[in-house]
Structure formats: C-alpha cells, structure tokens
Amino acid sequence: MAAANVVSSPTVSVDARLNPKALYALEAALVSVLLLALTLAGFGPWFHEGLALALTLGSMGAAVPAMALAHRAGHELRRDPRQLGGGLAKAAVLLAWGGFLGSGIINNLVLYLLFPLFWPVLVGLIIARFALHSGDTRGEDAFLATFDRSSQHAPCQRCGRPTHLDSGSWRSDRWYCPGCASPPKGVSA
Amino acid sequence: MRSGAAPVAALLLLAALAALPTATAFCEIVEPPSALPTQVNGTQVEIRLSEGHAKIVIIKEFHNPSTIAKEGQIFFPLERGHELITDLSLKVGNVVYNSSALGRGDALEGFLEASAQGQDAALVQYDDAKDVYWVAVTIPPGESRTTITTLEMPLARVDGAYAYEYRLSVDAGHSLSYLRAHVRIETAGVLEDVTVPSHSRLAVTREGEHAADLYVNSTAEAEGRDLSVRFRSGRAPLARAEEHGVSYLRLSLEATDPVFAGSLRAVPRALLFLVDTSGSMGTAGRWPIVKEAVLAGLHDLVSGESYAVVVPRGRSGRTLGLEPHARAIVSDATRVGDFLDAIVPGGSTDLTAGFPLVSRWASESASRGQQPILMVITDGVPTVNLRGVDLEKAYRGIAHRESMPVVAVAIRPSDHSAENLLRNLSHYSRGDPVPLYGGSAEGKVSEVLASLRLPVLQKVETGFAPGMETAGPRTQDLLRGGEITVAARAEGPLGDPVTVHVSWRDNAGARAEEVTATVGTIPVQPSLPRVWLLSRIHAMLAEVDAATDDGPGSALRAFATANRVVTPYSSLLVLVPRPDPFCCASTAQSASAGFPIGLGFPSLLEGEGRRAAQWEREMSNPLVTEGEVDRYVDQGSGEHRALLLDEPRTVAAGRFLTILEVDGQLVGVRRGWTYGTPFLDTFPSILFAVGALAGIAVVERLRRKGEASRRQRGRT
Fold first, then answer.
1. Which of A67, A93, A119 is the last residue of a domain?
2. Residue among B655, B699, B700 with most chain A CBs within 10 A, to mutate
3. CA B477 to CA B484: how far, in whole Å?
4. Would residue A5 count as lying in a domain?
5. B169-228 pLDDT per residue, tens
6. Residues A20, A110: one domain?
7. A152 domain residue, yes or no
8. From the candidates B599, B603, B701, which should be mutated to test the interface with A, based on the most A CB atoms within 10 A?
9. How many domains is chain A built from?
10. What is the pLDDT of residues B386-441, one digit of tens each?
11. Does A118 touch chain B (CB under 8 A)?
C-alpha cells in the first residue's frame, strides 16, 4: 500500500519497460559486428582491400556510438530501476568492443593506438573519463541504496523527502524531489 | 665415319648463304633485371660500303646509374656467312683502349681476372650455347663506358645491286640521348645509283662519281625503322687489289650474266607448313588467319611443287596433318581447309616439336629435286622447350643442315618481342617474316614466297690460275637474282691476261666458259684483301662445322687470332690499366636497403590484399588465360608426386599456381584458392554476418514495439 502522498504507477508492459538507448546500443553493436563479419567474408580471391578497409572503419565507427549508448543506457537503468535492458546494454558493450577490437586488429588501427607514441593520449583520456564521471556513480549509488522497490520511492538527496520515481528528477547527477529540483525564484536553498 | 661429301656440302651451303638477299646487323643489350639498369646514353654507327664489302662500326655509350659496379652485355646474333667482329675498343673518358686478340680461353680468363681485381675490361667472345657473339664490359657505378665494335662482311649483289640493312630500330629503341648513323659508299667502278628504300626522305649526298654519303642525325629521323641502303656500281666481273706484295682477284658473275643464258631453271618448291595449334592461337581471332595463310601458300604453288601441313602438338592430339602431296589445286585446298577446321587450338607452344618430321620431309624433298621451304605459322610465343636465342639457334641449325629457308608467318603477334623473335627466325634462316593481322594474307604470303632466293643453277665451278689460293669454295649454287663470287690471292703480281674458268651442267649437258681480261682493265678494289680474309674465315668455319677432328679448329684459331677476327676459337680483350690501387673502394659499395617507414607491420588487410593481387597476377598469366597449360593437377596429389619424379622444369612459380614443363607439356599445379572452394573458408564469417543481421532485425522489432507501447501508455 502506497503512502498517502505517494503517487502509484500503472502496470507497464515488458516492451515498454525496455530501455530504448540499450536497444539502440545493441543495434549499433550488431551493425559493428555485421560489418566485421562482412569484411571477413570478403577474404579470398575476390578480396578488395579498399572495400575491406571501409568496412572495418565502419565497424569501428559503429562500435563507438554503441558503447556510448550502452553507457548512457546503464546510467538510465540505474536511475530508473523499473526499466529493463541491463543485459542488453552489457551485450551491446561486449559486442561493440568485439567489433571495435576485431576491426582494429585486422586493419592495424589498434596497433597504432597501442603504439607508445599514443600512450600519453590514452592515459590522458582514461584519467579525464574517471575525473569527469565519478559524480555520476556516487549519486546513483546513494539513490539505489535508499530506493524502496515496493513503493518506488527514494529520498530526495537534498531534503530527504521520499519522492516517487515519476515525480522526482535528476539534476547535477543527484535525485531531487520536485520542490528541490526547481526552488522558488529569489529564495536560496 | 662421315662421308667425304660433308665438307663439300658445307662449302656449297656456305656459298649459298653468302649470297643472301640482304644482310642485317644488330645487337641486343642483356642484363639481369635491376632497379637501376644500365642505360645506353647514345649510339653512333659508321657504315662503310663498297663493292663486295661492308664495314660497320658501332659506338655505344653505356652509363651505370646505380651504386654498384655492373657488367653490361651486348649480344650480336650474327648470321652465318655474314658479319664477323673484327675489332673492339673501349673508350673511357677521352682515352680509347685497343684490344688484343687471344685464344678464347685465355681471353675469358684475362677478363675474369681483371673483373675480380676491379680493373676495367671489355671482352668480345662467342657463346656456344646460344650461338651468338657477345661483348661484356665492366662499368663502375655512376660512370660511363663506350664500346667501339667493328663488324665486317662480304657483300653480295642481289638483282644487280648491293644491299645492306642495319637494324637501326633496335638502337633507336634503347638510345636515350642521341642516335647517329653515317653511311659512306665508296666504289671502284662508277657509282650508278644509291637508294634508301627504308627512308626515302633522307638525302644522299654524292661526292664525285665514286662516293656518296647519307646521314641519320636523330632518333626522329630514324623513324623507328631499320636502315636499308642499295647501290649499283660498275658491272665488271673481275676486280683486283695488291697489298704487301700479295695480289688479290675477285670474280663475281651475276645470274643475269650472258654466260648463264639458257642454263637457269627454277627449282620446284616443297612447302612445309608447321602450324602452331597452342591455346593462344585460338584467341584474338588468330585461327581463321592461320587457315587463310595456309591456303594462300597452297595457292602460290604450281605444278610439280608439293606441300605438307604439320600440326606437331596440341590438345587435338594430332602429330601429323598431311603427308607430302603433289599439288591438286581444288581438292587440296578443300582438304587442308577441312583439316584445319577440325583442329581446336589448345595447350602449350613448342616451336621445335615438329623438327624430326621437318628434317625427314626436307631430305625427302631434296632427294626429289625440290627446294624445301619451311613456313612456321605461329603467334611467336613459345611456352615450352626452346625460347629466345635458343630457338633462333635451333632454327638456324635446321635451316643450315637442310639448306632450307624459313618463313615465319606471324599471326597477330602479341607484342614486339614476339614479332622480333619471328623476324629473327626468318632472317637468320634465309627467309623473311610475314606479319598477318587479318585480311590480304594471300598477297603477303605470295610476296614473301616470291622474294625467296632459291637456286636457279646448281654446282657452278670456278677455276683460277695455278698457284692462286681461293678464299671460299670453288663450287657454288647460283641463287635467283644472286651472283657467283670467289676471291683468290697469290704471292706476287697477277699473270697477264687474267683468265678464270667457269663450268656447270644444265639440261643440255656440261657447259664451260672463260672470263678473261688484261690486268690493266680490271678495276682496283682496295677492300679486296678484307673480302678475301672474311671469305676465308667463313670457309674455315664451315670446314670446322663439317670436321670430325680438331685440325680445322686449330687452324682457324691460329688464323683468326693472327688476323684479329672473333670466331668461336678466338676473342678480343681490352684491359684498361688501373690508375689507382684504391680505385675499387667505390665500386665495392652496395645499394643501401630502404628503411621501413611506419610501424613496419603489414595489416591483415594488406596481407590479404597482397594475396588477392598475387592470385590475380597468377591467374592472368598469359599461359593460363590463353589456354596454353595442357592440364592441371592438385598439389600433393598422386599425379603431382608422379610429375616430380621426372624432375620437371619450372616455367612459372607462384603461390597459388605453379606451371611445370614436363615432357614438352605445360602442367599447372594448383594450391590454395585455385582448387577446392574458397567460399568454404569464409562460410563461418558469412554465417556470423547473417546472425548479426537477424539480431539487428529482432532488436529493431523490440524497439519499435516498445516505442508503440510507450506511445499508447502516454495516450492513456
């Protein structure tokens, strides 16, 4: 039984609960794998180096948005536990990495990325990623730790008021109730 | 034991060869393939012509653009009875170094020793295996060397004129900076007429009544053609000269001379068509032209002449078409046409496969009193057995042995080298090539057959005064439009008057005539001593060919070395003194290997691209595309293992296809992509792709369904 000031949500079908970004990510990852498989299928007497290079670059190109979408889908799934598709997002990540590395290996781009000259760039990118992204996970971890699955409420990370998933919102990687999310003008928190 | 007639036959043949219609000198430059091959900066040719004598000086400037010392080689495929190399010099900077005449072995040893010590040297020598003369010259890196090679030959009259042809087109093809040719004609008699049939636009400058000059000053003026010069001078049958107390006399009697009136009779011909039925003959529309050429040859025959068609090899399995048949005009054309129509060209090209049959047929024709003529009908790309100069040598040999001209009918030759090969096959075998590209075969074949110089009077004997030493044979065959020429010499002055006896047999029986003149009326030809020398050496070469012991060879070695003439037994060697003992340091430099740019690891794509390109190259080998390969076997199969026991010769070695020559057949050994189904190798990848595509379809369907559900939920 929901609390008096808590709005209950209607029953939603599984299809509708699937996270769209996870699906897009999986599609993109599958495109990456498809292009890689087509490249490999082109090996043989009929092999065309230019076409194969274009296919592998396409495969790597598809893998990058697949990974990005899967990453975003992962965040969305953590912020809305009602949504489904975590497995799909993980599969998308795996397939995308497979497509990216497979294509990168056969066209030697991975070799260039692993070349010592590129190491400072790679290390810089990794540090930047963790530095810029650490806030996301802290807010989401606190949200999941306090989330009540039966009432679908989680306390606002500013005022502590239990807030239903449909009424609260995420601002600056934190979960806020409607009042904290948009405070009255001229009044400081 | 050999018959005693062999030397006589050889001498007769020599005399016949000495009266060839035209003479052609040229050289080919040969060196192993390299990134920076030796260049020919330029060529200068000096040609001196006089009655009965031609002297050609070929000056070639070679440049070595590479960083390693090189040895340039020039081949001179010289015809029997024609040019002999009589001098060699090497020009380094502005200094000309002359040659020494040595025995062949000593000269080669000297050259190799000089090369090993880094000393500049040049050598001209005979190559037994290829039957060519070659000049080798060492060229230090970045430097130039100029070889000056002199050739001389006795010149015979044809149709009343002396004719000389020089292969200027060959020089024009490889001379980068300059090409110059100067022809100087000097005659003892009045120079009546000079024509240049090959270059009618070139001006001939006359100098008095006995000399004329002609210049080619550039590659453009050469017009990519060979230089052909004809001239006429006084028709005195006798000429004389005196040198170092030795008198020389030369008799030349033309076929048109009144002494032979009523005795000349054309010898009936026997035509043998040796038809190449390999795979390439079935491509590019060649086969219909073959039939056209054979029928054109048949049409040219007259009563009493015969023909045969030989198909030596091919997938058709026929080894012999038709045995020699007397000509029966209508039925034979139909028969030969049907015979050729039944043949499907295929398999490898062996242009010597029919030689045993050709020899047998030529001997039989000669015994019937006919003149054998071999017509080789091919596109000029032999793929098995002999090729290049080896093939030329084989044809020269059979033409020499059987006294048989060879006419190569070139059916749409695929490239210049094929055309050149056929040209050489004909030219060195007393024939002319016939290039056919379709249409007008009859006219061209008839023209060439008509141009062949066949005997019109056999065994004409000449007799000089006692004590006179003749240079060549006293018994000769008189060819149509040709002449009987004999040079003789004697110590001291000639007797006065000079008389030469000439005798022969014709249909009316034995005939004899005398050619007489007082010494004062005989024109003086300064080149006569050289003509005598050259004729003597040609005669000695013929004696060596016919001999069974070393006697004539030793005599030739001594004579040729003493007279500085290159023969199979004597050579000319130029050694350049080494100015500085440390000169060789630079020549020892080796070409630096390139440093790979980038990571140096070829990608899988590049590797596969290379494999595919290699496959494409191997599959586009003309032997494969033109169906020259007789059969294919798979690598490792029982048939392949059996082939290896025969120690086959590898014609083309590849990653996917190796072509072997086994028992005169081409066998392709397939491996990798060339057998089985390459599709199976990529089948897992195709399955993977199909799976990915199916996955995309399923996910897309889920996504659309979810989108629809969310829209519906939004409305409710």
1. A119
2. B699
3. 8
4. no
5. 878 877 788 899 999 999 988 998 899 999 988 999 999 999 999 999 988 888 888 899
6. yes
7. yes
8. B603
9. 2
10. 877 788 888 888 888 888 899 888 888 878 778 878 887 887 667 777 777 777 77
11. no
Chain B residue with Cα closest to A28:
B696
Q: Is A55 on the interface with B (CB under 8 A)?
A: no
- B599, with CB counted inside 10 A (0-12, 13-18, 19+), is exposed
Shared-domain flag, residues A110 and A143: no
User: What number of CA atoms fall less than 13 Å from residue B594's CA on the CB side?
Assistant: 5
- Is A130 contained in some domain? no
Could you tell me if B407 and B376 are in contact, meaning their C-beta atoms sit under 8 angstroms apart?
yes
Final residue of a domain: which of A64, A86, A119?
A119
What is the mean pLDDT, run by run of 10 residues, along chain B of 716 residues?
38 36 48 70 92 92 83 71 86 86 89 82 83 82 88 90 87 83 92 91 91 92 89 88 92 89 86 88 89 88 84 53 46 78 84 84 86 90 80 84 88 82 76 74 82 86 90 87 91 89 87 89 91 92 78 87 91 78 38 37 85 86 85 87 83 85 85 69 89 94 88 77
Q: Are both A25 and A111 inside the same structural domain?
A: yes
Residue A124 domain-assigned (yes or no): no
CA distance A168 to chain B (A): 18
Cβ-nearest to B692 among A10, A17, A33:
A33
Do A19 and A69 lie in one domain? The reply is yes
Secondary structure letter of residue A148 according to DSSP: B
Sheet of B434-436: strand order equals: B322-326, B306-310, B269-275, B371-378, B406-411, B434-436
Tens of pLDDT, residues B532-544: 999 999 889 888 8
Report CB contact under 8 Å: B703, A108.
Answer: no
Q: A44 and B685 in contact by Cβ < 8 A?
A: no
ipTM of the complex: 0.85
**B contact test, residue of A30, A118, A166 with most B CBs within 10 A:** A30
Same domain, A159 and A78: no
Q: Hey, what amino acid is at B106?
A: D
Question: CB distance from A27 to chain B under 8 Å?
Answer: yes
Instruction: Look up the domain containing A96 and give its range.
Output: 14-119
Pairing state of beta strands B498-506 and B509-517? antiparallel
Residue A101 and residue A171 in one domain: no
Contacts of A46 in chain B (CB under 8 A): 612
Measured CA to CA, the distance from residue A101 to residue B645 in angstroms comes to 49
Among the partner-chain residues B602, B692, B710, the one whose CB lies closest to the CB of A30 is B692
B contacts of A111 (beta carbons < 8 Å):
599, 601, 603
> Residue B398 has what pLDDT?
87
